[in-house]
Design goal:
The protein is α/β, with parallel strands linked by helices and 327 residues long. The protein is built from eight helices and eleven strands. The strands form two sheets. A nine-stranded mixed sheet has the order 3-2-1-4-5-7-6-11-10. Strands 8-9 form a two-stranded antiparallel sheet.
Length: 327
Protein backbone atom coordinates (compact mmCIF):
# COMPACT_ATOMS: atom_id res chain seq x y z
CA UNK A 1 0.00 0.00 0.00
CA UNK A 2 2.88 2.31 0.76
CA UNK A 3 4.13 2.07 -2.81
CA UNK A 4 0.68 2.79 -4.23
CA UNK A 5 0.33 5.77 -1.93
CA UNK A 6 3.74 7.11 -3.03
CA UNK A 7 2.82 6.67 -6.69
CA UNK A 8 -0.49 8.47 -6.18
CA UNK A 9 1.30 11.36 -4.47
CA UNK A 10 3.85 11.50 -7.29
CA UNK A 11 1.20 11.62 -10.01
CA UNK A 12 -0.76 14.25 -8.08
CA UNK A 13 2.38 16.40 -7.66
CA UNK A 14 3.29 16.11 -11.35
CA UNK A 15 -0.25 17.05 -12.38
CA UNK A 16 -0.19 20.09 -10.10
CA UNK A 17 3.05 21.28 -11.67
CA UNK A 18 1.69 20.56 -15.15
CA UNK A 19 -1.37 22.72 -14.45
CA UNK A 20 0.88 25.62 -13.42
CA UNK A 21 3.19 25.20 -16.42
CA UNK A 22 0.27 25.06 -18.86
CA UNK A 23 -0.97 28.42 -17.55
CA UNK A 24 2.31 30.24 -18.28
CA UNK A 25 2.16 32.84 -21.05
CA UNK A 26 5.57 31.82 -22.36
CA UNK A 27 8.07 29.02 -21.75
CA UNK A 28 11.10 31.19 -22.44
CA UNK A 29 13.60 31.28 -19.55
CA UNK A 30 12.34 33.32 -16.60
CA UNK A 31 12.17 33.00 -12.84
CA UNK A 32 8.72 31.35 -12.92
CA UNK A 33 9.55 29.01 -15.80
CA UNK A 34 12.88 27.96 -14.28
CA UNK A 35 11.28 27.37 -10.88
CA UNK A 36 8.44 25.20 -12.17
CA UNK A 37 10.61 23.03 -14.40
CA UNK A 38 13.15 22.62 -11.59
CA UNK A 39 10.31 21.42 -9.34
CA UNK A 40 9.17 19.03 -12.04
CA UNK A 41 12.62 17.53 -12.57
CA UNK A 42 13.26 17.16 -8.83
CA UNK A 43 9.89 15.42 -8.47
CA UNK A 44 10.63 12.94 -11.26
CA UNK A 45 14.29 12.13 -10.60
CA UNK A 46 14.01 9.87 -7.49
CA UNK A 47 13.65 6.15 -8.26
CA UNK A 48 9.99 5.23 -8.64
CA UNK A 49 8.05 2.04 -9.34
CA UNK A 50 5.35 3.95 -11.21
CA UNK A 51 4.37 2.27 -14.49
CA UNK A 52 3.46 5.01 -16.91
CA UNK A 53 1.69 2.59 -19.25
CA UNK A 54 -0.90 1.65 -16.61
CA UNK A 55 -1.95 5.19 -15.71
CA UNK A 56 -5.51 6.36 -16.54
CA UNK A 57 -6.15 7.90 -19.96
CA UNK A 58 -6.57 11.44 -18.59
CA UNK A 59 -3.14 11.20 -16.93
CA UNK A 60 -1.65 9.79 -20.13
CA UNK A 61 -2.99 12.80 -22.02
CA UNK A 62 -1.50 15.20 -19.48
CA UNK A 63 1.82 13.36 -19.71
CA UNK A 64 1.83 13.71 -23.52
CA UNK A 65 1.14 17.42 -23.27
CA UNK A 66 3.75 17.79 -20.53
CA UNK A 67 6.43 16.16 -22.69
CA UNK A 68 5.63 18.66 -25.46
CA UNK A 69 5.85 21.55 -22.99
CA UNK A 70 9.19 20.22 -21.74
CA UNK A 71 10.44 20.03 -25.31
CA UNK A 72 9.33 23.58 -26.06
CA UNK A 73 10.93 24.91 -22.88
CA UNK A 74 14.13 23.00 -23.57
CA UNK A 75 14.29 24.52 -27.05
CA UNK A 76 13.89 28.05 -25.65
CA UNK A 77 16.53 27.39 -22.99
CA UNK A 78 19.06 26.09 -25.51
CA UNK A 79 18.40 28.97 -27.91
CA UNK A 80 18.87 31.49 -25.08
CA UNK A 81 22.23 30.06 -24.03
CA UNK A 82 23.39 29.46 -27.59
CA UNK A 83 22.87 33.17 -28.26
CA UNK A 84 24.72 34.03 -25.05
CA UNK A 85 27.64 31.75 -25.90
CA UNK A 86 27.89 33.19 -29.42
CA UNK A 87 28.72 36.57 -27.87
CA UNK A 88 32.11 35.20 -26.76
CA UNK A 89 35.10 35.18 -29.09
CA UNK A 90 35.60 31.47 -28.32
CA UNK A 91 32.16 30.09 -27.39
CA UNK A 92 33.40 26.56 -26.68
CA UNK A 93 35.61 27.88 -23.87
CA UNK A 94 32.54 29.01 -21.93
CA UNK A 95 30.14 26.06 -22.20
CA UNK A 96 29.87 25.83 -18.44
CA UNK A 97 27.64 28.91 -18.40
CA UNK A 98 24.86 26.53 -19.47
CA UNK A 99 23.31 25.38 -16.17
CA UNK A 100 23.06 21.70 -17.18
CA UNK A 101 26.44 21.45 -18.88
CA UNK A 102 27.81 19.02 -16.26
CA UNK A 103 24.87 16.69 -16.96
CA UNK A 104 25.78 16.63 -20.64
CA UNK A 105 29.40 15.90 -19.77
CA UNK A 106 28.28 12.92 -17.68
CA UNK A 107 25.76 11.69 -20.23
CA UNK A 108 28.23 12.00 -23.10
CA UNK A 109 30.85 10.09 -21.12
CA UNK A 110 28.31 7.41 -20.36
CA UNK A 111 27.25 7.15 -24.00
CA UNK A 112 30.86 7.00 -25.14
CA UNK A 113 31.63 4.19 -22.68
CA UNK A 114 28.56 2.24 -23.83
CA UNK A 115 29.44 2.80 -27.48
CA UNK A 116 33.06 1.80 -26.85
CA UNK A 117 31.93 -1.51 -25.31
CA UNK A 118 29.71 -2.45 -28.25
CA UNK A 119 31.11 -0.75 -31.35
CA UNK A 120 33.97 -3.11 -32.18
CA UNK A 121 35.78 -6.11 -30.74
CA UNK A 122 39.03 -4.73 -32.14
CA UNK A 123 40.90 -2.32 -29.85
CA UNK A 124 41.32 1.23 -31.10
CA UNK A 125 38.61 1.03 -33.75
CA UNK A 126 36.35 4.08 -33.51
CA UNK A 127 33.49 5.44 -35.64
CA UNK A 128 34.67 7.61 -38.52
CA UNK A 129 31.36 9.35 -39.05
CA UNK A 130 28.45 9.96 -36.66
CA UNK A 131 25.03 11.50 -37.28
CA UNK A 132 23.14 13.22 -34.49
CA UNK A 133 19.45 13.62 -35.24
CA UNK A 134 17.74 16.50 -33.44
CA UNK A 135 20.88 18.42 -32.50
CA UNK A 136 19.17 21.76 -31.81
CA UNK A 137 20.71 25.22 -31.29
CA UNK A 138 23.08 23.98 -28.57
CA UNK A 139 24.51 20.61 -29.74
CA UNK A 140 26.34 19.80 -26.52
CA UNK A 141 26.43 16.03 -26.98
CA UNK A 142 28.18 16.31 -30.33
CA UNK A 143 30.52 19.00 -29.02
CA UNK A 144 31.51 17.06 -25.89
CA UNK A 145 31.94 13.77 -27.74
CA UNK A 146 34.00 15.43 -30.48
CA UNK A 147 36.12 17.44 -28.05
CA UNK A 148 36.73 14.86 -25.32
CA UNK A 149 36.21 11.34 -26.63
CA UNK A 150 36.12 10.99 -30.42
CA UNK A 151 38.78 13.42 -31.56
CA UNK A 152 39.13 12.01 -35.08
CA UNK A 153 35.44 11.49 -35.83
CA UNK A 154 33.25 13.68 -38.05
CA UNK A 155 29.85 14.68 -36.68
CA UNK A 156 26.88 15.43 -38.92
CA UNK A 157 24.15 17.22 -37.00
CA UNK A 158 20.61 17.11 -38.36
CA UNK A 159 17.81 19.43 -37.30
CA UNK A 160 14.57 20.33 -39.03
CA UNK A 161 14.93 23.95 -37.86
CA UNK A 162 17.34 25.97 -40.02
CA UNK A 163 17.62 28.73 -37.40
CA UNK A 164 18.70 26.16 -34.78
CA UNK A 165 21.46 24.96 -37.10
CA UNK A 166 22.58 28.54 -37.78
CA UNK A 167 22.88 29.18 -34.05
CA UNK A 168 24.75 25.93 -33.49
CA UNK A 169 27.12 26.58 -36.37
CA UNK A 170 28.12 29.95 -34.87
CA UNK A 171 29.33 28.15 -31.76
CA UNK A 172 31.78 25.84 -33.52
CA UNK A 173 32.89 28.02 -36.46
CA UNK A 174 35.61 29.86 -34.44
CA UNK A 175 37.14 26.55 -33.31
CA UNK A 176 39.91 25.41 -35.73
CA UNK A 177 39.35 21.72 -34.97
CA UNK A 178 35.58 21.27 -34.61
CA UNK A 179 34.80 23.61 -37.49
CA UNK A 180 36.50 21.01 -39.74
CA UNK A 181 34.76 17.98 -38.21
CA UNK A 182 31.27 19.20 -37.37
CA UNK A 183 28.63 19.76 -40.03
CA UNK A 184 25.01 20.93 -39.89
CA UNK A 185 22.16 19.80 -42.11
CA UNK A 186 18.72 21.42 -42.10
CA UNK A 187 16.37 18.60 -43.03
CA UNK A 188 13.48 16.46 -41.88
CA UNK A 189 15.21 13.17 -41.09
CA UNK A 190 12.31 11.29 -42.73
CA UNK A 191 13.43 12.84 -46.03
CA UNK A 192 17.09 11.82 -45.57
CA UNK A 193 17.72 8.48 -47.26
CA UNK A 194 20.97 7.35 -48.90
CA UNK A 195 23.09 9.68 -46.78
CA UNK A 196 22.20 7.62 -43.70
CA UNK A 197 24.23 4.70 -45.08
CA UNK A 198 27.38 6.79 -44.66
CA UNK A 199 27.25 6.84 -40.84
CA UNK A 200 28.78 4.26 -38.52
CA UNK A 201 26.63 5.51 -35.62
CA UNK A 202 23.36 7.43 -35.47
CA UNK A 203 22.27 9.21 -32.29
CA UNK A 204 18.55 9.95 -31.92
CA UNK A 205 17.74 12.79 -29.53
CA UNK A 206 15.11 12.18 -26.85
CA UNK A 207 12.68 14.75 -28.22
CA UNK A 208 12.75 13.68 -31.86
CA UNK A 209 9.28 12.20 -31.99
CA UNK A 210 7.65 13.45 -28.80
CA UNK A 211 5.07 10.67 -28.87
CA UNK A 212 5.96 7.06 -29.41
CA UNK A 213 4.11 6.70 -32.74
CA UNK A 214 6.14 9.56 -34.27
CA UNK A 215 9.35 8.16 -32.80
CA UNK A 216 8.63 4.71 -34.22
CA UNK A 217 8.22 6.28 -37.68
CA UNK A 218 11.72 7.74 -37.33
CA UNK A 219 13.13 4.44 -36.06
CA UNK A 220 11.54 2.54 -38.97
CA UNK A 221 13.01 5.07 -41.40
CA UNK A 222 16.46 4.63 -39.86
CA UNK A 223 16.08 0.84 -39.98
CA UNK A 224 15.36 1.11 -43.71
CA UNK A 225 18.23 3.40 -44.68
CA UNK A 226 21.06 2.96 -42.15
CA UNK A 227 23.95 0.71 -43.14
CA UNK A 228 23.77 -2.92 -42.06
CA UNK A 229 25.62 -3.38 -38.78
CA UNK A 230 25.56 0.35 -37.95
CA UNK A 231 24.86 1.40 -34.37
CA UNK A 232 21.76 3.31 -33.25
CA UNK A 233 21.88 5.10 -29.90
CA UNK A 234 18.65 6.47 -28.46
CA UNK A 235 17.64 8.28 -25.32
CA UNK A 236 14.68 6.99 -23.40
CA UNK A 237 13.29 7.36 -19.87
CA UNK A 238 12.49 5.12 -16.92
CA UNK A 239 10.14 5.34 -13.95
CA UNK A 240 8.81 8.81 -13.16
CA UNK A 241 11.31 10.32 -15.61
CA UNK A 242 8.89 9.17 -18.31
CA UNK A 243 6.81 12.25 -17.45
CA UNK A 244 9.64 14.27 -19.00
CA UNK A 245 10.64 12.21 -22.06
CA UNK A 246 9.16 9.49 -24.29
CA UNK A 247 9.90 5.85 -23.44
CA UNK A 248 11.40 3.59 -26.10
CA UNK A 249 10.71 -0.10 -25.54
CA UNK A 250 12.71 -2.93 -27.18
CA UNK A 251 9.71 -3.92 -29.30
CA UNK A 252 9.77 -0.42 -30.82
CA UNK A 253 13.13 -1.20 -32.42
CA UNK A 254 12.09 -3.51 -35.24
CA UNK A 255 15.03 -4.04 -37.59
CA UNK A 256 17.58 -3.63 -34.80
CA UNK A 257 19.18 -5.94 -32.27
CA UNK A 258 18.95 -4.30 -28.86
CA UNK A 259 22.34 -4.64 -27.20
CA UNK A 260 21.83 -2.92 -23.84
CA UNK A 261 19.66 -0.44 -21.96
CA UNK A 262 21.15 1.69 -19.19
CA UNK A 263 19.13 3.50 -16.54
CA UNK A 264 21.06 6.22 -14.64
CA UNK A 265 19.99 6.89 -11.07
CA UNK A 266 21.56 10.31 -10.59
CA UNK A 267 20.80 13.74 -12.05
CA UNK A 268 21.32 12.45 -15.59
CA UNK A 269 17.70 11.95 -16.60
CA UNK A 270 17.80 9.99 -19.83
CA UNK A 271 18.20 6.27 -20.15
CA UNK A 272 20.47 5.14 -22.98
CA UNK A 273 19.51 2.43 -25.48
CA UNK A 274 22.08 0.98 -27.86
CA UNK A 275 21.09 -1.22 -30.79
CA UNK A 276 22.66 -2.57 -33.97
CA UNK A 277 20.96 -2.75 -37.35
CA UNK A 278 20.63 -6.34 -38.48
CA UNK A 279 23.07 -7.54 -41.10
CA UNK A 280 20.20 -9.19 -42.98
CA UNK A 281 16.40 -8.81 -42.91
CA UNK A 282 14.76 -10.66 -40.03
CA UNK A 283 11.22 -11.99 -39.90
CA UNK A 284 9.47 -11.12 -36.66
CA UNK A 285 7.52 -13.84 -34.85
CA UNK A 286 5.43 -12.15 -32.19
CA UNK A 287 4.39 -15.51 -30.69
CA UNK A 288 7.81 -16.93 -29.97
CA UNK A 289 11.22 -15.68 -28.91
CA UNK A 290 13.36 -14.52 -31.80
CA UNK A 291 16.71 -15.87 -32.83
CA UNK A 292 18.93 -12.82 -33.19
CA UNK A 293 22.17 -12.70 -35.13
CA UNK A 294 24.80 -12.35 -32.40
CA UNK A 295 22.88 -13.63 -29.42
CA UNK A 296 19.42 -14.44 -28.17
CA UNK A 297 17.10 -11.69 -26.95
CA UNK A 298 13.75 -12.11 -25.26
CA UNK A 299 10.99 -9.88 -26.61
CA UNK A 300 8.60 -7.79 -24.57
CA UNK A 301 6.65 -10.79 -23.32
CA UNK A 302 9.41 -11.49 -20.85
CA UNK A 303 11.43 -8.27 -21.13
CA UNK A 304 15.10 -8.90 -20.38
CA UNK A 305 16.37 -12.16 -19.12
CA UNK A 306 19.36 -10.85 -17.21
CA UNK A 307 19.60 -7.83 -14.94
CA UNK A 308 23.05 -6.72 -13.89
CA UNK A 309 24.32 -3.90 -11.75
CA UNK A 310 26.76 -1.88 -13.81
CA UNK A 311 29.01 0.61 -12.09
CA UNK A 312 30.84 2.97 -14.40
CA UNK A 313 34.06 3.91 -12.57
CA UNK A 314 34.69 6.80 -14.94
CA UNK A 315 31.55 8.66 -14.00
CA UNK A 316 30.80 7.10 -10.62
CA UNK A 317 27.24 6.55 -11.74
CA UNK A 318 25.11 3.68 -10.51
CA UNK A 319 23.41 2.25 -13.54
CA UNK A 320 21.25 -0.77 -14.17
CA UNK A 321 22.18 -2.54 -17.35
CA UNK A 322 19.52 -4.71 -18.89
CA UNK A 323 21.50 -7.14 -20.98
CA UNK A 324 20.37 -9.49 -23.68
CA UNK A 325 20.84 -13.12 -22.75
CA UNK A 326 24.00 -14.60 -24.25
CA UNK A 327 23.36 -17.40 -26.63
Amino acid sequence: MGSLHEEANLVEKVCEIYDKISMLETLKPSKDVDSLFTQLVLTCIPPSSVNIATLPENIQEKRSRLIRLCGEAEGHLEAHFSTLLASFANPLHHLDVFPYYSNYVKLSRLEFDILHRHYSTEPGVIPKSIAFVGSGPLPLTSIVLASNHLKNTCFHNYDIDHSANSMASRLVSPDPDLSQRMFFHSADILEVTDELKEYDVVFLAALVGMNISDKIKVIQHLAKYMASGAILMLRSAHGARAFLYPVVEPEDLQGFEVLSIFHPHDEVINSVVIARKYQAPMETDHNHHQELGIGSFMTSSCKYCDFQAFNNPLTQMNIIEELAMDE
